[in-house]
Amino acid sequence: MKIRVMQIWGFLLAMMGWIFVACSMAMEGWKISSIGGQGGSSVIKVGWYWSSLWRACFTDSSSTSNCYDFPVLWSVEGYLQIVRALLMSGMAVGVLAFILSLIGMECTYIGGKDKEKNRSVFTGGICHITSGMLAASGYALYAQHVSAEYFNPRFDGLQFDLGTPLFLGWAGCAFQITGGIFFLVSVGKIWSQTYSSAPVLKVPAVESNALRSSHTNVSIISELSTKSNVSAVSELSSKSETTALSNALSKSKHISRTRRPSRSKRSDKSRGSIKSDVSRSVSSSRVSRSHLNSKKASGGTTHHFIKNSYL
Asked: Which of 56, 170, 298, 306 has a 20 to 30 Å separation from 89 between CA atoms?
């Protein structure tokens, strides 16, 4: 059953129960007793005694009623005062329950936010149940007093039976309690749906933008650092090649100046040694380049290569 339908049913049941309780308070014949009948004569005399919360009456066979109204509060028996107090308090709590439940129902557009409406419906349901329990306890007290007099063998007075208003009132109490339970179950369903759903963390727009900017800054810094490392390694390798070539050329010039041209064999040897030095330096630079490329492909660092190039 949907929550809105459940709340409507609860409101209707509670309203019907409250009306039944109010009608029972105004009805006559809470306890009834009859006398007379076919006695030992040919004249049939019948009379009915009945009483309510407000007066006691006698009606004879000619439909003539004689009533005695209870004048003041303290002139009534004690149990009647307690029953009146319980029924009146139950009706007052029922009115409060109607106001709270009407404000908090889903089909009404008053009562504020959803949390406030749910609280008012929950409070209204508790008030409906309390109202039904108060009225039911009042009816039970009255019925207990009447039945105690009826089943007491030592009681010499007039014995009464339970009247119709008591059963109508008990039905109204049952309707009120059922309506309050409907309200409580509807609110319980709403709270179970809200608490069972997993909480979703919503990141504000400012924080999301800050996270994105931080990610972009980190990526830019990493790219710049890799580019700077590659450029530094390439500059060092180029410098090492140029220094090797310049050293080889200076050595060859120095040898050609110091030695005489007459010694052709030695000059040829020196030229061969110079060529071999230049080829070694070029081959070493190529090896260093290939080593650097292999380290870039494997993802390793280039700090060791930089130290070796200085050496």
From this structure: 56
Low-confidence ranges of the chain (pLDDT < 50): 40-42, 198, 201, 203, 255-256, 258-267, 269, 296-297, 299-311
What is the 3-class SS of 8-55, one letter each residue? HHHHHHHHHHHHHHHHHHHCCCCEEEEEEECCCCCCCEEEEEEECCCE
* CA–CA gap between residue 227 and residue 306 (Å, rounded): 15
Q: What is the dihedral of CA 177, 183, 186, 190, to 10 degrees?
A: -140
Pairing outcome for strands 161-162 and 65-69: unpaired
Of 63, 176, 73, nearest in space to 128 by CA: 176
Tokens representing 22 are 């109010």
Element containing residue 68 per DSSP (H, E): strand 65-69
| CA–CA separation, 34 and 146 (whole Å) | 15
Q: Which residues pair with 47 in a beta bridge?
A: 35, 60
Q: What is the DSSP letter of 73?
A: G
User: Is the CB of residue 23 less than 8 Å from the CB of residue 176?
Assistant: no
Q: What is the model's pTM?
A: 0.59
Positions of E strands within 202-275: none
Q: What is the DSSP string of 131-181?
A: HHHHHHHHHHHHHHHHHHHHS-TT--S---EE-HHHHHHHHHHHHHHHHHH
Please give the pLDDT value at position 198.
45
CA distance 81 to 64: 29
Name residues whose C-beta falls within 8 Å of residue 78's C-beta, 6 or more positions apart in sequence. none
pLDDT tens per residue across span 122-155: 999 999 999 999 999 999 999 999 998 888 888 7
**Predicted pLDDT at 89:** 94
Q: Residues 6 or more apart from 15 whose CB is under 8 A from it?
A: 98, 179
Would you state the structure tokens that stand for residue 219, as one six-digit string? 């990526």
User: What Å distances lie between residue 286 and 95, 277, 278, CA to CA?
Assistant: 99, 14, 12
